[in-house]
Write a structure and sequence with these properties.
The longest helix is centred in the C-terminal third of the chain and has 19 residues, at about 375-395. The protein is α+β, with helices and mostly antiparallel strands. It contains 10 helices and 24 strands.
């Protein structure tokens, strides 16, 4: 007899689990994910029945949206691990090897994940899989992904760096460096062969890509904390849409600045040359290593002289090449594309959040031709509000409102400004996995201050009377 929303949760879970696709998540994780979903839908009987019908019929029956509340960062936590909910359930019931960049909502889905509404549809049959032309899906079972692309980030996995030769320009990844592991994030629809086919390098040359650890998500052992998420990351109580509405009200009362970004170039801890400002009328700017005069949409670092330039800086500058392109979208979101033949390394609070790390904890390695978002204005606003609350707690000596495990027991306005900044190092990385511990030890890097975000910061500081 077919189960329905009127049956006990355990019966519904067992029935839905029978339709799990093999080769993806292990049964224990799938069961917990399904249990979590069924409990959320128990009071929404029509949606639960729609989910049961869709899964049992493999999508042959037209079904309605099946929705759960959207979290601030868009991800769902299951069994100590986080992932995008629509991807998790699509993997369980449809495509076990799905990557998050391969899923697209169907036109009739009213609560698709990409719409960023307060509720998210997790009906796996309201989405379709989009694969880059030329990618053989039949071979995916024998391939290994650098990161579980649902956003699930396990910890405690160690591996030595592995290098792929530069003659493979079509493979690009973004790597996050933290104190415990390197997590390599493929750019959209990028897959590569598993590590046993790649030669292990005893050292990294300038003409190689460094690749992080690889694993099969289905074979990750159960641990107390597999998600790689710092439990101390603040959780905001307001919805993303509420924050967007508040932000829109702030921006309506502020005239857009003449420039949307200021870019300062550094060698080690010394700024070289004047700060370059990007006109608001120019939605994108290229920062490269050539010697041409800088234009309204191009900042050429090659022309900048430094009588105290070190040998390391001189050598690194030769590899900047075509550099990067920064693009402004919407009212203040920033996207970055690596145009160089060599990697760039980014410190981005937005990427920290996407990777499930504490703000400022990780360094993100961006591979040639990869294009990713590095700044989100709504998230910036939420982080500024969180800092404001911590400031108030410190000011009132309300220690109980602060994270007891947070080593930062004081704040300054500079902590607020960092949220409005993206820093990038060319060629050379820094952090726990490198000899250089801070970006100020890298031979050549830039700091990008975002003016629209600084306007929001000004509003937050004045609203909360922070001087």
């Amino acid at each position: 007899m077919a189960v329905s929303s009127s049956d006990a949760c355990v019966s519904i879970v067992h029935s839905l689990l029978c339709h799990r696709q093999g080769g993806g998540y292990n049964e224990n994780f799938s069961k917990k994910a399904i249990e979590s979903l069924v409990k959320k839908l128990k009071e929404k009987k029509e949606e639960l029945d729609a989910l049961i019908a869709a899964v049992r019929s493999s999508g042959s029956h037209v079904s309605r949206c099946v929705t759960i509340a959207r979290t601030l960062d868009g991800r769902l936590q299951v069994d100590g691990r986080k992932g995008f909910p629509h991807v998790i359930y699509a993997r369980i019931w449809r495509w076990p090897d799905l990557m998050k960049n391969e899923i697209k909502p169907l036109s009739f889905c009213q609560f698709a994940f990409d719409l960023k509404r307060d509720s998210v549809c997790v009906n796996p049959y309201h989405y379709e899989r989009v694969v880059t032309p030329g990618l053989d899906l039949s071979s995916l079972s024998s391939l290994s992904i650098d990161m579980d692309d649902s956003g699930l980030i396990p910890v405690g996995i160690q591996s030595s760096p592995i290098s792929l030769q530069h003659q493979q320009p079509h493979r690009h990844f973004l790597t996050m460096h933290s104190g415990r592991n390197n997590v390599a994030m493929p750019s959209p629809s990028v897959v590569r062969q598993s590590h046993h086919t790649a030669p292990v390098s005893t050292g990294q040359s300038e003409a190689e890509y460094e690749v992080g650890p690889m694993w099969d998500q289905a074979n990750i052992p159960d641990t107390d904390n597999q998600d790689g998420i710092d439990p101390n990351i603040p959780v905001y109580s307001r919805s993303f849409e509420t924050a967007r509405t508040e932000l829109d009200e702030i921006l309506q009362n502020k005239t857009p600045p003449d420039h949307w970004a200021s870019i300062a170039y550094f060698e080690l801890d010394q700024q070289i040359g004047p700060t370059y400002k990007v006109l608001y009328s120019r939605p994108s700017v290229v920062v490269d290593g050539f010697v041409d005069p800088s234009l309204d949409d191009r900042f050429c670092l090659g022309q900048l002289s430094n009588v105290q330039r070190t040998e390391d800086s001189d050598k690194a500058r030769k590899y900047i090449g075509r550099g990067i392109q920064l693009s402004l979208q919407d009212q203040g979101d920033i996207w970055l594309q690596c145009l160089s033949d060599h990697c760039v390394f980014a410190q981005s609070f937005y990427l920290d959040r996407e990777a499930g790390r504490s703000p400022g904890e990780a360094v993100h390695k961006i591979y040639p031709q990869a294009r990713i978002q590095v700044f989100d204005l709504v998230q910036c606003y939420l982080q500024l509000q969180q800092l404001s609350a911590r400031w108030a707690a410190l000011d009132l000596r309300q220690v109980d409102l602060l994270d007891a495990n947070d080593d930062h027991n004081s704040l300054s306005v500079d902590d607020f400004r960092k949220v409005c900044t993206v820093s990038l190092s060319f060629v050379k990385g820094w952090g726990p996995d490198y000899q250089r511990q801070t970006i100020k030890e890298t031979p050549c890097w830039i700091e990008v201050r975002l003016h629209r975000a600084l306007q929001v910061l000004d509003s937050v500081l004045h609203t909360n009377s922070i001087s």
